[in-house]
Amino acid sequence: MTTTTPEIEKTAPRADKPQRIKRGNVIGNTGLYIATGVAAFLFLVPFYLIVRNALSTDAEITGETWKFFPTDIQWGNVSELFSDNTVPYATSLWNSTVVGVAHTVGVLLVCSLAGYGLARIPYKHANKIFYLVLVTLMVPAAVTFVPSFVLVSSLGWVSSFRGLIIPGLFSGFTCFLFRQYFLGFPKELEEAARVDGLGYWGAYWRVVVPNSLNFFAAIATITFIQGWNAFLWPLVIGQDQEAWTVQVALSSYMTNQTVNFHLIFMATAISILPLVLVFLFLQRWLVQGVAQTGIKG
Amino acid sequence: MSTTTTRDATRPAPAKVSKTKPRRGVRGTTFNFWLFTGPFLIGLLIFVYIPILWSAWLSFYEARYTVTPDKFVGFDNYEYMLTNGDFVRSLGTFSVFAAIVVPVTWALSLGLALMVHRLRFMKAFFRSVFFLPTAVSFVAASLIWKMSIFSGVRFGLMNTVLDWVGIENVAWLADPNPPWYWLVILTLRLWLQSGFYMILFLAALQNIPPSLYEAAAIDGAKPGWQTFWYITLPQLRATSTAVILLLLVAAYQAFDEFFNLLPKTTWGRPPLVELYYTALGDSQDYGAGSAGAMILTVLICTVTLLQGRFMGLGRGDENK
């Protein structure tokens, strides 16, 4: 394998090169870059709008003529947002952080263990149990929000971290992804661990997990994004303002009667900043994770 | 060298262990199975299976403002949901939505992937730009769409642009006639989702062996539509199936942007928004809400199963 691939890579560009000089290709390439550039421009417009509006005054946002950039950058909008008492924005950021982190850690722990058990530990009813998990994939989580709310409210978990976090931990889909991944995990490594006298539990923590950190990290990122961006469940459960997540707080700005454009957009900007940073820094690696997990799903 | 000798030396020992293991290990294996899967399965039972069963039970009772009702009403809640126009209309809204958003997102994400795949430089940059909206929540995007781009007043971006070419302001979201709100909802979903599916297509494009294209060129296939139609598209079949399925699932879950873009309107409500208002709105009718959830669940399961049949999903799983 290693000897053949460099050869192909070496010959391929050489065969390509004369073609690239052809006029048709130059025009085609320019056209391709123009089309991609226009699409990229359109994709960036919403980001530009958030930043522009977040750092402007209301007068400039709603002005008669379109201002491309604020004349004076209003950094004071940040402190104004956090001192505004009508929406508990700081509390909602904290709630989202707690929920996001707990959700991610919990899902990884519970679902990876179950996925490993289903993939690797021989048990005569394992297949039947796997079908019970698969069946839940057919019922989208969003459809079960009415029944789940009924259950959680009768447990008295409305407007609490327990209610926000615990019901979401048992994701059939994530369990399924872990099972598929562990099926492809090299058996030799585990067998070596067993030979050394480790049980399933020891082999899992000392050999399987340390050798799967890439996959765990990919699932962690995706799970955290889902947790941070979730709206329906936090909306249903967060009935008191104190239990609002960032998304519920943002939504409340939209239905409020008084509209402070600069504050709303500053709140939006701050709510997406953590994830945009994650995306920019973990780009290449995140792309691989999505490509890996997405297709298997 | 030294590793092979030590391995040889220890060979007999593991053989002996594995001979005794099956007898001693059956109970140990079962115990371990439950140790690993138990927490998840208990959670699944409590937070997925019990709610669904409870909801099925509730759907046969008159349950307003209470989750422990005592008045059995048979199929009345189902009849109410199916004859009351709102829920049925929401199914219609969903059908229109899915029929447009699934193929258009599929085509756009494939188009973006084909473009990015062919780029020779700045590939990573453009890939990042298209992927970046995946980081934004539906709520945040709804806010930008509603308050800035498709704001119905003069300073909204779209109305500003229309003003430059001399067209009057459009009330994008406030008026169902003409239904401009569809444009708002579709562009929002396209912006948020296509980058994610583009990544899936990019990965699949990279896995197509170049020799296929070389063979096609030798056979006289013209680059462009012919190679795309006869090679690229068939090679992307598995990914396309997965993408369409994921898009459909995402469409079923549509709630966030409808709820935020069209609050309290009677039109443009997909089923989940309708259920939200039924079960948790002013009347808090858990019985009717549960009946609606049951109807929707049965519908979704049926469609998923049928789709699996048609598109050969799970074909790979049968080998296992």
What's the pLDDT, averaged over the residues of chain A? 83
- Classify the secondary structure makeup of chain B into a structural class: mainly alpha
Our estimate of the beta-strand percent of chain A is under 5%
Q: What assembly state would you assign to the polypeptide chains in this entry?
A: heterodimer
Helix percentage of chain A = over 70%
| Measured distance between first and last alpha carbons of chain A | 29 Å
Strand content of chain B: under 5%
Tally of alpha and pi helices of chain A:
15
Rg over CA atoms of chain B:
27 Å
Described by the principal axes of the CA atoms, the overall outline of chain A is: globular
Runs of chain A with pLDDT <50, length 5+? Answer: 1-21
Please state the structural category of chain A: mainly alpha
| Annotation, overall tally of beta strands of chain B | 0
> Total strand count of chain A, please?
0
Look at the structure and give the mean pLDDT of chain B: 83
Gross geometry of chain B: globular
Write the layout of secondary structure elements.
The complex is a heterodimer of chains A (297) and B (320).
Chain A: H1 4-21, H2 23-54, H3 58-61, H4 76-83, H5 89-120, H6 126-138, H7 145-154, H8 161-165, H9 172-183, H10 187-195, H11 200-208, H12 213-229, H13 232-237, H14 246-255, H15 261-296
Helix pairs in contact in A: 2-15, 4-15, 5-9, 5-12, 5-14, 6-9, 10-11, 12-15, 14-15
Chain B: H1 2-10, H2 12-58, H3 76-83, H4 85-118, H5 123-131, H6 138-149, H7 157-164, H8 181-206, H9 210-218, H10 225-235, H11 237-252, H12 256-261, H13 271-280, H14 286-311
Helix pairs in contact in B: 2-14, 3-14, 4-5, 4-8, 4-11, 4-13, 5-8, 6-8, 13-14
